[in-house]
Amino acid sequence: MSFLVEDKNYAFLSNLGIEKQNLGVYHTKWTGSGKTIKSICPANGKPIAEVVTGTLDDYETAVKATQAAWQIWADLPAPKRGEIVRQIGNALRDHKTDLGKLVSLEMGKILPEGEGEVQEYIDICDYAVGLSRMFEGKVIPSERPGHALLEMWNPLGAIGIITAFNFPVAVYGWNNALALVCGDTMVWKSAGTTPLTSIAVTKILSKVFEANNLPGSVCSLVCGDSTVGEAMAKDDRLRLISFTGSTNVGRRVALNVQERFGRSILELGGNNAIIVCENADLNMVVQSALFSCVGTAGQRCTSTRRIICHEKVYDQVLSSLKKAYSQVRIGDPLEPQTLCGPLHTENAINEYLSAIEEAKKLGGVIECGGKRINRDGYYVEPTIVTNLPHNSPIVHKETFAPIVYLLKCKSVDEAIQINNEVDQGLSSSMFTTNLGDVFKWLGPKGSDCGIVNVNIPTSGAEIGGAFGGEKHTGGGRESGSDSWKQYMRRSTCTINYSKELPLAQGIKFE
């Protein structure tokens, strides 16, 4: 892989190992024989760099190297693997400012969010270090005398990770840190529009492996097109594919992986709602909604797409939200005063404008926003839409942009039904001061999402809990809790330490 930085104003990239001439690092081979793509800065629409991508032949080389690296990596005791991950976390700390700036530059999210994404990777490294000394097994009582029944966990081997543009560091980090301490090696296909970020991350990891005399191919990277992703999904050598992206693509990935009896972790679409009960603290509602609707320009999978308000507070919520939206500072994501940066691509603007037009045709009222901002880059106005039925097709469609639909309900039960009626089931929030509402929301007839919040927004998950959703969101789980089990295989082990051979269930075969 090679690259060419075109703008000298981006000198900080050299701190991340991105130079005009790639000299490579020990144990790491950068190659590329595919097409050349441009990394575009969404803040101004101008190219940052050119990257020569990998072909299927390059992918084949990467997989073989990753398999070979597993023979070395799997021999390390889990706490030793945890020590390498600890060093990765420290290396990320050293580069947090520069890497966060690169995320903002290449993806478009504001600088605090760019650095926050790197911090998320650091946090999961810390979590994984502790996990490396805590993997649980079981000793299960055996019904046969002189027998021990055990449960053991071992690494899967080489796995594949396919990530999306909106979290070009954190989502890889969730998978990477846990998979490493579990004993897996990996091939990473990053998003085609954020190649520089993935290169920078891989260089940080490579230096850690180099310092420990380990092959950099423990964590291989392939920047390529959809043919590489398809090859990964069909590749028997990659026992697990973790895919983050759209539901439509995720469905094809799942089918290809399942056809070969592989495993998949799917983090797909979301159509997330905030329910506002009549007794809610409306100041908290407005602050939370502003962050989860407008943050990352509505390009989080957990961004709020729908606000379901009790009819008694609907007008007040609308009035307060419009006032808050009018104060949002839109601009260059690298400027400290900016609260909302650009959309990621020109195509995202087209989808935004298309959704606005469809909402209007269906009778929707644009309370604020609804336009592209006339300046360089991919900027749009954060938008509030009212006067649409909760089951309108456009309301049920996830548009990856800062558009929220304000809906009205008469009761908590109706609000929960509206929350659950969409295909996706990622994140959900209820704002209430009623304890009964809380436990109804958390209960079997409450939210059907993987993330169920109370008095906090739909976005902003902590790494300690498992992250993921239900239904068309894919059902996968990443990050905390017992998500580590997905990166390992389970063996039930029976040991006979007696001189007899009793059979289970008291069967006699003599």
Automatic annotation (TrEMBL):
Enzyme Commission no: 1.2.1.3
The species this protein was found in: Leptotrombidium deliense
Name of the molecule in the record: aldehyde dehydrogenase (NAD(+))
Tell me which UniProt keywords the record has, alphabetically: NAD, Oxidoreductase
The catalytic residues are: 267
A GO molecular function for this record? aldehyde dehydrogenase (NAD+) activity
Is Coiled coil there in the keyword field? Answer: no
Q: How does it assemble?
A: Homotetramer.
Pfam families associated with the record: Aldedh
Q: Where is the Aldehyde dehydrogenase domain?
A: 33-491
Q: Is DNA-binding included in the keywords of this UniProt record? A: no
Q: Which family does it belong to?
A: Belongs to the aldehyde dehydrogenase family.
According to its UniProt record, this protein's enzyme class is oxidoreductase
